[in-house]
Amino acid sequence: AGQVNATKNTVRGSANLTETKIDPWSGVVTYVYEFATSQANGVIGSVCLTHPMGAYYSEMIDAPDAAACNADRLGFGGALGGDQLLTGLLAKTTYPTDEKGVLLYADPEADEAVAGYLNADEGVLELRHHALGLKTLDLFRRDPTGLWDSLRSTDTLNVADFLQVDSSAGEDYCRICFDAEADKIYLVSAPEVDYIDATGVVKIREYDRKTLAAKDYTVPNNTGVDLQSFISENRGTPLNGTVYGGSLYMVEDQAEQIYRFPLADPTDVQAVTMHGDDMAYLSDAHDGRLYCYYRTRAVVLNTGKNELFSCEAAGYDNTTSGFSTTAPVLGEPLTPLRRYYGDSRIRTERVLRANYLATINDLPKSVEKTADKTMKVIYTLRRGG
After folding, report:
1. What pLDDT, in 10s, does the model give residues 309-321?
2. Could you tell me if 56 and 313 are in contact, meaning their C-beta atoms sit under 8 angstroms apart?
3. CA dist., res. 173 & res. 175, Å (int)
């Protein structure tokens, strides 16, 4: 907003500050953007508004570095906002040890948050339901230290026959994740080895969130290379071992190449087109894309194209030691929970996804902009009656 685009990003235009009129008190706001001959070429079917940071999410090859805009830190107040959220749930700097588990999702309708905890020694997966306290308050629920004990109930699932681990450190080779769009919880088990070679397999147990009905998948390593075996969350959330959109994503050992294994046919392994980039950590997953903000510019894995792109948007600069990831809020896809893991604390807050489209206005007829034309877009908002 209010910026001139002189970068090689050919999707963003430049604000016309002379013609733009921002006067919300009068009930009318007009944005005017100019696009040069090199910008926005192609077929245009919709005109949209987004957050001021949203334009920095254009998927590019070798995007220019942008100043850190804290794209995943658009926190706001309200019932699910603030540092105090879920006190006692996963509030440890060592993560996910101390029997705290992985925050999977929040459910405002049920007034709870759900965390997954794997006890590999006993061969059980626990889904722990914690009270959010949005609608109710139990004055009698206290632990011996006098702090509020938010645990409501626990679903205990036997996974002893599923795991591929033997030692007390077996959790390092397991992963718990949740795909909100599929409404599925996944337990991923890798062999307890230094790396997964051609003889190893990754096992996946898929749970329906509502019924906990289970379905198993076995994914062979037919990539021709060794894959990373360490898939556990520890402060940062790794991309390796993520299940999203019906596919498992694994990373080559001692390298950066990402492979995609469709669960419908795990033998149909697909190498992601990397464009010279890499993606070690996972910050968010939604609308067919996996995001990482832990760098001077964001990277996004477009699962529809099976390609890794970069964006001008950045979460932090290179000197920041913390890492963040998101957990979905059911029924509210634009405002997930952000979990920030710093050196001294873990913070949970409600955030607004920076690259959402606030309005989508389909044109009556698509237009095509070519390199011999410039373009001006005038977008006017008026307060409703």
Report:
1. 998 877 654 444 5
2. yes
3. 7
